[in-house]
């Protein structure tokens, strides 16, 4: 486990050192669980958002995007259930005075059991070598089966207790499992209580006339309240989707794991409006579609899995997560939820306005059902960043730290390096930069030996380096170096743009979906 913690610490320090993520208002000692994206982080984040938007909106002719306000009428949150039901189960340790999410404590306990399964697999793989059959081992090894059974039983009980709001049983489960406070190591726990996660604020010039508002805890409601506006103005026919990316805010008590769980974060959500009764097919279809999008980035099929929910939200009739293997284990990256007609029916009830769709084929009106896909942009950033950071041992007994970001998402696509700062090489390099910057983010770097400049670009995640040298003066060729393989090719100056474009073009990557 310590090894995983070390890996995660390296991810966090690398993100800061290379201009990806900084602690918010760090010069004032920062705010916990609030982060700023640096010059490279802002670019990577923008590229992930664009990769999602292109796949979701541009490539689907029946999905459109909106950008709704963060402030919404307070009754919105009454209708959505957030005022009454947007709670986390919290437990305090009496000795350390630290507060934890009760469900997370149990899930972390289960993660330790899953880590034991991984250990058994690693040991067996060493023992059996090439003849090792992982699937067979997982389904036949008694010790592994016992661990799996234990993990499933615990999660099932947790899910059922939370669904029934039986908080006493959640505490009993924590005690039975012998879970200790990570800080004090003590088992001296308070009862489990519910805590509402919405941030309150006020709208208005004077205190006595101000309206109590909330910062939105999700972006979905902005889509639901605009359902009719979009449907009518866009003359949309069911099934159709509305997509949105934007900030949401949750007063997370146990915000941790860097940008995995933050108080201010960004979501990328799409609500798909469908005919009642068709939700099962659409649920399966979107589960598959979304997984294909993730896999198109080439981050390894083994790093993803589906997790079907035991505990369903009050509005859902099916829900699954796409989980990703972060440095701290498999955790939720995206949710796919069949939300029935809960949202539109509830807003119809609270607003007194009809939120229905007239179906010309059936010649009747109905409240559409909704299928939701919801992904955290910051979590996606962490998945991409942590998966890409590797330390490689090279043949000449040296090592290099390289950020193998999918080239389509990399903040800077190419670094142009003059071999020396003389003989007209910087001028040619600068001219190339000026040509390429219309198509890509480019950096120019002339400081230090070329080997050190390569290492710097490897660490920041730049997929290509182009070196201008004395041969360039003779025959207008340059060396292009590929980040991942470190392979170098001699190519004509005129070919540089085309070679890079082919590797970083979103179209080429999105063909995979």
From TrEMBL:
<dbReference type="InterPro" id="IPR022961">
    <property type="entry name" value="Gly_tRNA_ligase_bac"/>
</dbReference>
<dbReference type="GO" id="GO:0005737">
    <property type="term" value="C:cytoplasm"/>
</dbReference>
<dbReference type="InterPro" id="IPR036621">
    <property type="entry name" value="Anticodon-bd_dom_sf"/>
</dbReference>
<comment type="function">
    <text>Catalyzes the attachment of glycine to tRNA(Gly).</text>
</comment>
<keyword id="KW-0436">Ligase</keyword>
<feature type="binding site">
    <location>
        <begin position="372"/>
        <end position="376"/>
    </location>
    <ligand>
        <name>substrate</name>
    </ligand>
</feature>
<dbReference type="InterPro" id="IPR027031">
    <property type="entry name" value="Gly-tRNA_synthase/POLG2"/>
</dbReference>
<feature type="domain" description="Aminoacyl-transfer RNA synthetases class-II family profile">
    <location>
        <begin position="198"/>
        <end position="418"/>
    </location>
</feature>
<feature type="binding site">
    <location>
        <begin position="376"/>
        <end position="379"/>
    </location>
    <ligand>
        <name>ATP</name>
    </ligand>
</feature>
<feature type="binding site">
    <location>
        <begin position="260"/>
        <end position="265"/>
    </location>
    <ligand>
        <name>ATP</name>
    </ligand>
</feature>
<keyword id="KW-0648">Protein biosynthesis</keyword>
<dbReference type="GO" id="GO:0004081">
    <property type="term" value="F:bis(5'-nucleosyl)-tetraphosphatase (asymmetrical) activity"/>
</dbReference>
<comment type="similarity">
    <text>Belongs to the class-II aminoacyl-tRNA synthetase family.</text>
</comment>
<dbReference type="InterPro" id="IPR004154">
    <property type="entry name" value="Anticodon-bd"/>
</dbReference>
<dbReference type="GO" id="GO:0015966">
    <property type="term" value="P:diadenosine tetraphosphate biosynthetic process"/>
</dbReference>
<keyword id="KW-0963">Cytoplasm</keyword>
<feature type="binding site">
    <location>
        <begin position="250"/>
        <end position="252"/>
    </location>
    <ligand>
        <name>ATP</name>
    </ligand>
</feature>
<dbReference type="InterPro" id="IPR006195">
    <property type="entry name" value="aa-tRNA-synth_II"/>
</dbReference>
<dbReference type="Pfam" id="PF00587">
    <property type="entry name" value="tRNA-synt_2b"/>
</dbReference>
<feature type="binding site">
    <location>
        <begin position="332"/>
        <end position="333"/>
    </location>
    <ligand>
        <name>ATP</name>
    </ligand>
</feature>
<protein>
    <recommendedName>
        <fullName>Glycine--tRNA ligase</fullName>
        <ecNumber>6.1.1.14</ecNumber>
    </recommendedName>
</protein>
<dbReference type="GO" id="GO:0006426">
    <property type="term" value="P:glycyl-tRNA aminoacylation"/>
</dbReference>
<dbReference type="InterPro" id="IPR033731">
    <property type="entry name" value="GlyRS-like_core"/>
</dbReference>
<dbReference type="Pfam" id="PF03129">
    <property type="entry name" value="HGTP_anticodon"/>
</dbReference>
<feature type="binding site">
    <location>
        <position position="101"/>
    </location>
    <ligand>
        <name>substrate</name>
    </ligand>
</feature>
<dbReference type="GO" id="GO:0005524">
    <property type="term" value="F:ATP binding"/>
</dbReference>
<dbReference type="InterPro" id="IPR002314">
    <property type="entry name" value="aa-tRNA-synt_IIb"/>
</dbReference>
<dbReference type="InterPro" id="IPR002315">
    <property type="entry name" value="tRNA-synt_gly"/>
</dbReference>
<dbReference type="GO" id="GO:1990742">
    <property type="term" value="C:microvesicle"/>
</dbReference>
<keyword id="KW-0067">ATP-binding</keyword>
<feature type="binding site">
    <location>
        <position position="218"/>
    </location>
    <ligand>
        <name>substrate</name>
    </ligand>
</feature>
<comment type="subunit">
    <text>Homodimer.</text>
</comment>
<dbReference type="InterPro" id="IPR045864">
    <property type="entry name" value="aa-tRNA-synth_II/BPL/LPL"/>
</dbReference>
<keyword id="KW-0547">Nucleotide-binding</keyword>
<feature type="binding site">
    <location>
        <begin position="265"/>
        <end position="269"/>
    </location>
    <ligand>
        <name>substrate</name>
    </ligand>
</feature>
<keyword id="KW-0030">Aminoacyl-tRNA synthetase</keyword>
<dbReference type="GO" id="GO:0004820">
    <property type="term" value="F:glycine-tRNA ligase activity"/>
</dbReference>
<dbReference type="GO" id="GO:0070062">
    <property type="term" value="C:extracellular exosome"/>
</dbReference>
């Amino acid at each position: 486990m310590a090894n995983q913690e070390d890996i995660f610490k390296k991810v966090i320090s690398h993100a800061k050192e290379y201009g990806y993520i900084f602690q918010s208002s760090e010069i004032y000692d920062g705010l916990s669980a609030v982060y700023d994206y640096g010059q490279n982080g802002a670019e990577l984040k923008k590229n992930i958002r664009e990769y999602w938007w292109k796949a979701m909106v541009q490539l689907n002719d029946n999905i459109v995007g909106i950008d709704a306000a963060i402030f919404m009428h307070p009754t919105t949150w009454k209708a959505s259930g957030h005022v009454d039901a947007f709670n986390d189960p919290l437990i305090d340790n009496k000795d350390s005075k630290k507060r934890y999410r009760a469900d997370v404590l149990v899930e972390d306990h289960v993660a330790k059991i899953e880590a034991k399964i991984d250990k058994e697999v690693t040991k067996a793989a060493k023992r059996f070598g090439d003849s090792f059959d992982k699937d067979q081992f997982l389904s036949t090894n008694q010790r592994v089966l016992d661990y799996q059974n234990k993990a499933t039983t615990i999660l099932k009980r947790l899910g059922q207790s939370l669904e029934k709001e039986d908080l006493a049983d959640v505490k009993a489960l924590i005690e039975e499992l012998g879970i200790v406070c990570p800080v004090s190591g003590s088992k001296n726990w308070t009862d489990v209580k519910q805590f509402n996660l919405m941030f309150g604020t006020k709208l208005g010039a004077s205190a006595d006339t101000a309206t109590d508002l909330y910062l939105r805890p999700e972006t979905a409601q902005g889509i639901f309240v605009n359902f009719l506006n979009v449907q009518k103005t866009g003359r949309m026919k069911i099934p159709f989707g509305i997509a949105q990316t934007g900030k949401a805010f949750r007063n997370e008590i146990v915000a941790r794991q860097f940008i995995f769980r933050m108080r201010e974060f960004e979501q990328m959500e799409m609500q798909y409006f469908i005919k009642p009764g068709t939700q099962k097919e659409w649920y399966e279809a979107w589960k598959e579609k979304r997984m294909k999008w993730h896999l198109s980035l080439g981050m390894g099929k083994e790093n993803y899995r589906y997790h079907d929910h035991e505990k369903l939200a009050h509005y859902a009739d099916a829900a699954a997560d796409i989980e990703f293997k972060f440095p701290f284990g498999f955790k939720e990256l995206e949710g796919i939820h069949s939300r029935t007609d809960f949202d539109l029916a509830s807003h119809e009830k609270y607003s007194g306005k009809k939120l229905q769709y007239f179906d010309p084929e059936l010649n009747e009106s109905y409240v559409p059902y909704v299928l939701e896909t919801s992904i955290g942009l910051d979590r996606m950033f962490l998945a991409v960043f942590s998966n890409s950071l590797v330390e490689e041992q090279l043949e000449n007994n040296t090592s290099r730290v390289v950020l193998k970001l999918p080239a389509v998402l990399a903040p800077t696509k190419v670094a142009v390096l003059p071999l020396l700062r003389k003989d007209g090489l910087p001028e040619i390099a600068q001219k190339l930069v000026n040509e390429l910057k219309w198509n890509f983010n480019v950096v120019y770097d002339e400081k230090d030996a070329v080997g050190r400049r390569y290492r710097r670009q490897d660490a920041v995640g730049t997929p290509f380096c182009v070196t201008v040298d004395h041969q360039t003066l003779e025959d207008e060729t340059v060396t292009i170096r590929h980040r991942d393989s470190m392979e170098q090719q001699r190519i004509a100056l005129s070919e540089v743009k085309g070679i890079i474009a082919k590797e970083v073009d979103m179209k080429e990557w999105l063909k995979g979906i």
